[in-house]
Amino acid sequence: MRRNQALQILDALAAATKVPTVLFMVNSAGGSAAYEEALGAERVMLGFPYPSGERDGPVMRMVPVNDKKVWKIAVGEADGRVTERTCPVAEVLRSMRGYKVEIRRDMDAWLKNHVALLMTALAPAIYAANIDVGRLARTRDLLVLSVRGIRGARGVHRIATGSVSDQHAGMSMVMVGVAGVGFSSLNLVPVLFLATVQLQASVTLMSGQMSAHE
Asked: Which CATH class is domain 3-105?
């Protein structure tokens, strides 16, 4: 479920007072404030939705489980604590075939780092390579731009929030400047957007150059 879809059902979730915990499995840097405002912080958990699928009316259809490739689902409390409910929720998820579960104390930072990794770097580079990962792997300039995008977004995230999830700490860093922006007053989402636009402009130019030589 996309974040905008989750926001549309917050009133219904808030009214379901007999449901003590709602785990929002999202791919978003937006944080938990909207969920907590609607439901109360004591009912909100965060996670990342490794299982993929599509929405078919009121039904969510998930891709088949691959027992040979077990996915690890990251979940945690928005404030980083491990509470009485954290482990029971993780156990429910572990009961699903084909999945492991990791309880994280930095789930909010983990989600922001994942968006920084994907939206400012990997996704634009893959599209510039015409959604051909083999072509991306053979195109050094795209790989360089992608790495710079990752480094820039993570550097901005570190300055804006004071934290970087260790889940993505293996990425090498080179700062990409965002000219004219005062870091002391940054809001993370607009800054990630600026970094994305900057990299997308570069990979779009690169894609055009590649096409012209093919």
From this structure: alpha beta
Q: Is 72 exposed, middle or buried (0-12, 13-18, 19+ CB in 10 A)?
A: exposed
List pLDDT tens digits, range 132-164: 888 888 888 888 888 887 777 766 656 555 555
Radius of gyration of the chain, Cα coordinates, nearest whole angstrom: 19
Tokens of 112: 């922001």
Q: What share of the chain is helix, strand, coil (3-state, %, to 5)?
A: 50, 15, 35
Whole-model pTM: value is 0.66
Q: Quick one: 19 exposed, middle or buried, by C-beta within 10 A (0-12, 13-18, 19+)?
A: exposed
Using DSSP's 3-state secondary structure scheme, residue 39 falls into helix
Spell out the domain ranges in the chain: 3-105, 108-212
Of residues 87 and 152, the one with the higher pLDDT is: 87
- Identity (one letter) of the amino acid at 190? P
Measured in degrees and rounded to the nearest 5, phi and psi for residue 56 equal -120, 85
- Contact between 165 and 124 under an 8 Å Cβ cutoff? The reply is no
Alpha-carbon dihedral of residues 72, 67, 1, 43, nearest 10 degrees?
Answer: -50
